[in-house]
Design brief:
The longest helix has 25 residues. By secondary structure, the protein is of the alpha+beta class. The strands form 2 sheets. Strands 1-2 form a two-stranded antiparallel sheet. A two-stranded antiparallel sheet has the order 3-4. The protein has one domain. The protein has 2 helices and 4 strands; from the N terminus they run E-E-H-E-E-H. Bound molecules: zinc ion. Zinc ion binds next to loops.
């Protein structure tokens, strides 16, 4: 399922292919966005469908794996 709606509220990081600066937007932003101007090098990146697909795919896998991890990592902070 491409560009899954379950990822609309997931914050995704896309990295500029020129300078590597990352920017974070929720999934729904990527779904409707056509291009993004990098705040570092001012290069316009065209957010083509294959790029969106790759991004969504990456986060679809990450969110599946991270849910269980978050549960495990939920330990109380040490007392001081
Ligand atoms: Zn850049």
């Amino acid at each position: 399922m491409p560009l899954s709606e379950s990822l609309h509220s997931v914050e995704m990081e896309f990295r500029c292919s020129v300078c590597g600066l990352g920017f974070v937007r929720p999934g729904r932003w990527f779904k409707s966005a056509a291009q993004h101007r990098c705040s570092g090098c001012h290069q316009i990146t065209y957010l083509t469908y294959p790029k969106k697909l790759a991004l969504f795919d990456r986060y679809a896998k990450q969110t599946k794996g991270s849910v269980a991890k978050d549960e495990e990592a939920r330990t109380p902070p040490p007392l001081q």
